[in-house]
Amino acid sequence: MFRKTVMAEIVLNVELRDRTGTGGAREARRDGKVPGILYGGPRGPVPLAVNANEFRKALYTGKLLGHLVTLKYGDETQGVIAKDIQFHPVTDQPVHFDLFRVDEHQLVKISIPVHFKNQEQSPGMKRGAALNIARHDVEVWAPADHIPEDLVADLTGLEIGDTIRWSNLNAPEGIEPVIKGRDFVIATITGSGASASAEAAAAS
Fold first, then answer.
1. Cα–Cα dist 41/146, whole Å
2. Is the distance from CB of 136 to CB of 170 less than 8 angstroms?
3. Which of 101, 125, 150 is at the close of a domain?
4. Does 140 reside within a domain?
5. Given CB 3.0 to 4.6 Å as the disulfide criterion, which of 85, 106, 174, 196 pairs with 132?
6. Other beta carbons less than 10 A from residue 151's beta carbon
7. pLDDT per residue over 139-176, tens digit each?
8. How far apart (Å, rounded) are the C-alpha atoms in residues 101 and 71?
9. In this structure, are 116 and 131 located in the same domain?
10. How far apart are the C-alpha atoms of 154 and 125, rounded to whole Å?
């Protein structure tokens, strides 16, 4: 089911589930486990389960979703990317996860959040301008073992009317946007909040 890979920072010890569907998932939860499915590659979907405490511990590191993770099953390991985690609407506890097989250097398509820094160093923002964000995250191609935590837009020196584009994010080497052929807009410094959304939509 798995193949040998270099270990990632987070290791999840998994077991195979005999039962699939809603009944199998409920049974896993009753046994103190979080059910999930491993997708991707030629081997087809594999139903898994992880000890709930171990899964929550990995989740709370902030490095589970959207990062390279190592699954361990006996002596076998497999690099995976956690693409989706479902939570209980009341308790907010994880109830299901989706994982995708990857090789450690494989390029994966994933959304990376954009964070903005040094707003206090922007003359435009100091004069009361609004930061109108067109994209809170950017879909990129990234090596599975070098997925960045975020993409950072530095607002230092920006005036009203200035635009932050993909090229301004200084993405790490090897990270390429899925959108090709244009230096698309991330955010704009606008003089008034009333027309901000319309301006950003037009600029992008």
1. 21
2. no
3. 101
4. yes
5. 196
6. 22
7. 999 988 888 888 999 999 999 999 999 999 989 989 99
8. 10
9. yes
10. 13
Q: Do 76 and 65 touch, CB atoms closer than 8 A? A: no
Quick one: tokens of 47?
């139903």
Q: Are 46 and 20 in contact (CB under 8 A)?
A: no
Q: What confidence tens digit (pLDDT) does each residue in 27-55 have?
A: 889 899 999 999 887 677 889 999 999 99
Q: For residue 86, give Cα distances in angstroms to 118, 137, 164, 166, 173.
A: 34, 20, 33, 31, 32
pTM (2 d.p.):
0.67
Domain that holds residue 79: 10-101
Q: Give a yes or no: residue 2 inside a domain.
A: no
Q: Are residues 116 and 96 in the same domain?
A: no
Q: Are 200 and 188 in contact (CB under 8 A)?
A: yes
Longest distance between any two alpha carbons in the chain, whole Å: 62
Same-domain check for residues 160 and 192:
yes
